Amino acid sequence: MFVVMKVLGSALILVSGLLLGISCSSRLAVKCRELDCLDRALLHLETEISYGLTPLPRALLVSGEVAGGLVGRAFSKASALLGRRGGMVPSEALKEVLNGAGLASLGLEAQNVILEMAAGLGTSGRSEQIALIEATRQRIRILKENATNDATRYGKLYRHLGILGAAVLVLLLV
Amino acid sequence: MSSVTRGSFEATPARAFGQGPCETPAKIESQVLPLLSSGIARAVSAWLERTAPSRRETLEEIRIRKGLPLCLVLSSGDVFLSPAGTEVKPEASFRPDGGEVQRTFALLTDCSSYAMEVELATGYVTLPGGHRVGLVGRMAAFSSEKHVLREVYGFNIRIARHVKGVSEKVLPLILTEGPEKKPRSTLIVSPPRAGKTTMLRDLSRVLSEGRSEMKLHPCHVGVVDERSEIAACYDGVPQHDLGPRVDVLDRCPKAMGMMMVIRSMSPDVVVTDEIGGDGDARACAEACAAGVAILASAHARDIEDLARRPYSSWLVDKGYFEVFVVLSRRNGPGTVEYVGPRTEGDERGG
Quick one: which of B317, B293, B75, B94 has its CA closest to B194? Predict the structure, then answer.
């Protein structure tokens, strides 16, 4: 009975360690995915503004739908709060959705980049808006590159560390 | 030119011709206040609440200037508002700061000033409901021709009103005689803010609907709305009721648009606002010669004043317009001073 319990306990510790490792590693992958969605959303926003001269609330909604993911949902939510319909300016609307949409996976840096862009969104002419979004995309691309490197470098490491840590713990306990 | 019965009625404000009170306060509450920053909206909303209906319906403009008193223009004069919406002297009034002005600008442009570059270059934008917002600020020049409003410091929100029925007394006098009535080419003349556009709008509606009791068949009306003021199209839909047979060429220069609408839509009547230069006058003459009745307006105190202007003198002298309607603010906006043809040595009131 004691042996069975020991085996079961060890198995539980191993599984927990493995899951912990996978969770840490997937957080890095989610960050990459969301930054990718953000980049796609910004690219579409740029197109809507430069070619369609689409009003910002509609442009954000369409970009959000195209991009998908949590970022896409956040863009769609922000569009409803914006301008003549929702009475908010872009910085307020995006701040509100960033706080509430569970976008912590994006990382603080990316959130600040979005908020900095939001402060100038819709306030100037077409060419300035394109320049603003392009500059934001460049910063997001750098963040995405770093996140991809982190995911490649640390993703496997976290998974291995999880299972190895658990194995060490099992050995110590047994 | 066949004769037209000359208007002999007493000078009466246009509202007296109307069909009951207009819905100005409700329109402001629902269409304008949500687009103002909270401080300004609070003051205007409180003023609307505590002011008698007869007085608040005379609200014509809301003037917002950065660092200067918040001002409401009523037909009886200007009032300045405190933050609580009470009428105070200018020195005690609410002064919107830069933040309030920027926020108002963002809301008025739906956070999309890039989509309104053309409108901003002309100095105004049109809101849902047809209200027109004039803008002032710092212009930036990109070339000798391209100027862009870079920073906005002030707004003049002109409250649109469609007072149905203002043209009822004028209408019979602008129609031809005979068994089947048709509109004649008519020029509405008045100084600014005397109700030219309101009259033009109501005449368009009535002509578009037709009047069986007057034997006036419904007309197809082509509106060349260079400043988006007659129909106030928002998202392609006229915000004012111009009747069921109206085609609007929105934001198109008059000189180009009048012949364009004649060729493309074959209207019975072409309506346009504020003839303001030689090109506009020539386009009117060309359209009149094309056999279409023109309904237009021009800034002037009276017909003689109009005839003194270089661009319009020949238009008046050569009789392109058969009927002139002179409006003033003598008894309030839309006071009809005269309806009839131009005659030599004519002495008109005003």
Answer: B75
